[in-house]
Design brief:
By secondary structure, this protein is of the alpha+beta class. The protein has six helices and 26 strands.
């Protein structure tokens, strides 16, 4: 199993860091799920070889270099997952240990790790680590990625006291003018169109689509074009438009650029979720629809994998993940 990273330089644990180590349990025997290495609970594991092997792997769609660690580390997760082993143990990366983390805040690997006899869960992981992650979040006009937007249009940092019933969404990036991109705290699974022949907006290549931040405009075009006809066909549009409809808020189906920005900032959104419990974990297990169309039968979608945001087109009648976006403004100052 490889860990894909953007920064080859290791971090050094300032204190013991609590993580989740997934194992394969067979009777009273435990092993690592990928390599099958025997594991003894309560014992410190030291990775071999002593020097991790790190090599250049690829570049992502934003032209950032990606490397892979192919040995010399012990892998763990930073949140509960369904794709590793059948037993989750609480594990500790000892203070002073060198470690690496994937760009999305879901996986971590260290040169040594104590696998405890306790079961692990989201409640046992190191909240301080997520607070440190948020210190590096992009910021514009006093608002950071990972801040929550409230129903009065103010913004609150995840480490502050939050009135959870008054949270509207979470800042997942910024538009070119510096205003925040706000996405919903919920993720849904929907079809783009139940039929194989529709056109709402412009048909584009992925190179152009990834630069589109026009979800609000395309959604308005959809509303004008459909106008009550065949609404049952377009579940993704309808899910976004009707999200929090009782609040009379302006939600829309995000473009490829907006969705890719959300995924690219997953480390901060995931950190905010782990601190507050608000929102959802952005993982590497699914594709997210955008309203940006490839052709009449397909539209662009994106996902996370191997330290990068990937994009591809899919048939509109297939089910993918959908996250509504909010038509935000930046007129009010953030609460501190």
């Amino acid at each position: 199993m490889c860990l894909y990273i953007r920064n080859r330089k290791p971090r050094v644990a300032k204190r013991d860091i609590v993580v989740l180590k997934y194992l394969q349990k067979e009777g009273e025997r435990y092993s690592s799920p990928c390599q099958g290495t025997p594991v003894t609970l309560g014992k410190l594991m030291v990775a071999q070889p002593e020097t991790p092997h790190i090599s250049r792997w690829d570049k992502d769609l934003y032209d950032r270099e990606i490397s892979s660690i192919e040995g010399g580390v012990i892998h763990a997760k930073l949140s509960e997952s369904n794709d590793y082993g059948n037993y989750c143990a609480k594990a500790i990366i000892p203070a002073g240990t060198e470690y690496w983390m994937d760009p999305f805040g879901t996986e971590i690997a260290a040169k040594q790790m104590l696998i405890t006899e306790e079961r692990g869960s989201n409640e046992s992981v190191d909240i301080q680590l997520f607070k440190e992650i948020l210190e590096d979040a992009p910021e514009k006009n006093g608002v950071r990625v990972g801040d929550y937007q409230m129903t009065d249009d103010s913004f609150v940092h995840p480490t502050k006291k939050i009135a959870k019933t008054k949270v509207r969404g979470i800042v997942c990036g910024f538009y070119e003018d510096g205003s925040p991109i706000v996405c919903a705290l919920e993720m849904f699974r929907e079809k783009w169109d139940t039929k194989y022949d529709s056109r709402i907006g412009e048909h584009t290549s992925w190179e152009k689509a990834m630069k589109l931040f026009n979800g609000r405009e395309v959604t308005a075009q959809y509303q004008k074009q459909i106008d009550g006809k065949d609404k049952e066909r377009f579940a993704a549009f309808e899910r976004c438009i009707n999200y929090r409809k009782d609040k009379k808020e302006d939600w829309y189906f995000g473009s490829l650029g907006e969705n890719m920005t959300m995924l690219d900032n997953a480390v901060y959104l995931n950190a905010a979720h782990m601190i507050t419990g608000l929102g959802f974990i952005i993982d590497t297990e699914g594709w997210y629809w955008s309203c940006s169309e490839y052709d009449s039968g397909g539209s662009w979608c994106c996902s996370l994998g191997r330290s990068r945001v990937r994009c591809d087109w899919n048939d509109k009648y297939r089910t993918c993940r959908v996250v509504p976006f909010y038509a935000s403004t930046n007129k009010k100052k953030k609460k501190v």
